[in-house]
Amino acid sequence: xxxxxxxxxxxxxxxxxxxxxxxxxxxxxxxxxxxxxxxxxxxxxxxxxxxxxxxxxxxxxxxxxxxxxxxxxxxxxxxxxxxxxxxxxxxxxxxxxxxxxxxxxxxxxxxxxxxxxxxxxxxxxxxxxxxxxxxxxxxxxxxxxxxxxxxxxxxxxxxxxxxxxxxxxxxxxxxxxxxxxxxxxxxxxxxxxxxxxxxxxxxxxxxxxxxxxxxxxxxxxxxxxxxxxxxxxxxxxxxxx
Length: 241
Known about the structure:
Blueprint: H1 14-39, H2 43-60, E1 63-68, E2 79-82, H3 88-96, E3 101-106, H4 113-121, E4 125-127, H5 132-144, E5 148-150, H6 169-177, E6 181-187, H7 189-192, E7 204-210, H8 224-240
């Protein structure tokens, strides 16, 4: 296997592909139910369990994850804004991004029977694009609990790996709540879990780069576009490097 990020095994066997698919779906279902049960006894233990299982998923599927830039972070909390290449971004960020973090996701996902229950139990943040005030209130509660938020500013996965336009929501929220924005670069996840691949995970390598936090204390609502473009430019520059 090459050491380059995103390079997968040249010829993963059919057995390996099927096995990884079973591992992914099985762990999502079983670990989710276990996390819900643990949460009733200890919310923090449930969250640590979820992070551990994300790492176990990568290990069992033959995915190596490397993280750089952890030394740039302080105590937090933050709003992390990663690029979005595949579903595996979520597992990699959940397992390896430092701190007590919660993902923001569109509210429709919370209606899914198992996934929705797991997300609600673990304190994920439902985002209503038609009600920005409600979303900001949820983020304020998260800040009060010293938890960081992970928001994909592209809003959806890129089909070809190219960086999509960034939406304003994450940056409006960061300014309103007063949390620093941390650009995060995910490399290799598009090859690990290709879009349209029927939830298949291929062995390979993923890199996560944590870039310098951007303070929002002195920013106002009118600065949202400038903040958005600054974050996008930093992520784009890092992807080109």
